[in-house]
Amino acid sequence: MIRFEGEISSECKKFIRKREVKTTLLGGTFAFAVIAYPFIALFSKWTNSIVASILMYLLGVAAFVLMAFVAPTKKDIDSLSPTKISICLEEGYIEATCQRFTLDRDLSDIKEVVDHGDWFSFKFSGRGAPAHRFICQKDLIVEGAIDEFVGAFAEKITKAEA
User: Fold this and answer.
1) Are residues 87 and 144 in the same domain?
2) Which of 81, 83, 101 is nearest to 4 (CA)?
3) Domain limits for position 60
4) What pTM was estimated for this model as a whole?
């Protein structure tokens, strides 16, 4: 068992915020696009103006973009940030505990472990819990050792791009 526990740094929280914005933006835009296309077809038939329909669509996309950048507040990020990461090598899972919830993934889902210097982030294959919920800050290790962590994921560790 390897366990990291405590409050992560502001640099890690900034990483989480960027990922939350990206996830919200992509998800919201996709959902809006799926809903908007039938609406545009009906609206353009009703108003006989495709230009008005396209303008309404663009206005809606702009609203979603703005919501994505305003969505995660500092309080939200604090509650979404992991306070404990447990890696059970024997049973093959990784678990992230946040203020609001607990998430877990299979170790076999890990595609890449990114070394950011003072902390590690994960990239997973397939669907499941968002990867940015699984951050292991090196100075927060309370069980196991960094060498054990590095040994377990040696073939998957890459350096973060500057």
Assistant:
1) yes
2) 83
3) 11-72
4) 0.73
